Amino acid sequence: MSDVSKDVTDFHKLQPDRKIAIMGILVFVFVFAILIGTYMAKKGGSLLTIPGKKSETSQTAQNADATSLTMAANPAQLSVGATTTVTVSLSQTPVQAVDVIVNFDPKMFRASNIVNGTVYDDILRSEVGNGQVIMSGTVSPSDPTNLRTGDVFSFTLEALATGEGTLSFDRDLTITAKNGVNTLGSAEETKITVTQ
């Protein structure tokens, strides 16, 4: 303790301009330490990272927990007036609930007949709109841990005009939820060719 009191006494004996310089250095070190702490907190707590390694690891973890949605039309080629069955499937990470919105050109196709698949026990909403198919499904409240992958639902699509039509997921409104987190990773569109 005598060393500290000696240092304080020596500090008081310094000229005023040197006291200001020392105080400035202390303030600079304090502010610099706060900035480094804030930077480390944003980076996940590590100041030393191997370039590319952290983002690669994070991307791998993110992909491992992601849910994939796909659509398949059977048949994928048909004539005007014919119908095809479009099946929406869920793979990779099973989830507790989904809100799926499929968009299509209403001048080219007419949708109908939404049928539940094997993934969810309960359909909360199934609706066909102008150029959209909407389906919301969830696991049974009596068995919320019964998570599955497979066919979520299917619907019938009638061809109205010739050409190549695209069915796509509305990425802004389509959600795959697990423990309150949207796990949607890939959501692949499908194409249907309509001939005369």
From TrEMBL:
Keywords: Membrane, Transmembrane, Transmembrane helix
Xref: InterPro entries: CBM2/CBM3_carb-bd_dom_sf
Record-linked CDD domains: Type_II_cohesin
Cross-referenced SUPFAM superfamilies: Carbohydrate-binding domain (SSF49384)
Segments crossing the lipid bilayer: 20-41
Gene Ontology MF term list: carbohydrate binding
Protein name from the UniProt record: Cohesin domain-containing protein
The species this protein was found in: Candidatus Collierbacteria bacterium RIFCSPHIGHO2_02_FULL_49_10
